[in-house]
Inverse folding.
C-alpha cells in the first residue's frame, strides 16, 4: 500500500479541496504526505505582458514580485500543513522554484521517495485543454510513480 504521498498545490480552491481529500486518504491508509508548492518563476513576467503591454522589470520591482511570490507560497503551504496536522497526518512542505511545474512535481516525488502523487485535474476539454495544456497530463506521461487524479466535485458531475 502507499506510504508517502506527494500533494502539489497552488492555493486555488481546487487545490485546497484536493489537499483535504489527500489528507483524508492519507489518514485512512496511515500514510504521510509531502505538500509541494511549485513556485513558477515566469509568473510575474507573464502577468506584466497582459494585453500586449510590456513593462520593464526593474531590480526593485523584480525583488518585490519575488517576495510576494514567496509570501504566497508560505501562506499556501501553512494552510495545507494545518489541514494535515488537524487530521493527525504527518506532513512536510516544500517550495520548488521552477519554470516547468510538471518537472518540479516529478523531481520532488522522486527526491522525497513518494510512492503516489495525489493531484487535481481542472478538467479542461477541447481547445482550452489543448492550448492551455495540463500539468496533470504532463505528470501522468512522464512519471513512473502512480498518480491519483482528484476531480473537483462539480467537474466529476459534468458541470464544468
Amino acid at each position: 500500500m502507499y506510504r508517502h504521498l506527494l500533494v502539489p498545490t497552488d492555493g486555488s480552491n481546487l487545490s485546497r479541496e484536493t489537499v483535504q481529500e489527500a489528507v483524508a486518504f492519507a489518514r485512512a491508509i496511515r500514510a504521510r504526505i509531502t505538500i509541494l508548492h511549485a513556485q513558477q518563476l515566469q509568473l510575474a513576467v507573464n502577468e506584466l505582458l497582459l494585453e500586449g503591454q510590456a513593462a520593464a522589470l526593474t531590480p526593485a520591482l523584480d525583488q518585490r514580485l519575488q517576495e510576494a511570490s514567496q509570501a504566497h507560497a508560505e501562506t499556501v503551504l501553512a494552510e495545507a500543513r494545518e489541514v494535515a496536522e488537524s487530521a493527525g497526518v504527518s506532513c512536510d512542505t516544500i517550495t520548488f522554484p521552477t519554470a516547468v511545474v510538471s518537472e518540479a512535481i516529478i523531481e520532488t516525488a522522486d527526491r522525497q521517495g513518494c510512492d503516489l502523487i495525489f493531484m487535481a485535474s481542472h478538467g479542461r476539454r477541447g481547445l482550452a485543454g489543448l492550448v492551455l495544456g495540463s500539468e496533470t497530463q504532463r505528470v501522468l506521461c512522464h512519471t513512473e510513480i502512480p498518480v491519483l487524479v482528484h476531480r473537483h466535485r462539480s467537474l466529476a458531475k459534468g458541470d464544468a
User: Anything to note?
Assistant: The mean pLDDT is 84. Residues 1 and 112 are 17 Å apart (CA to CA).
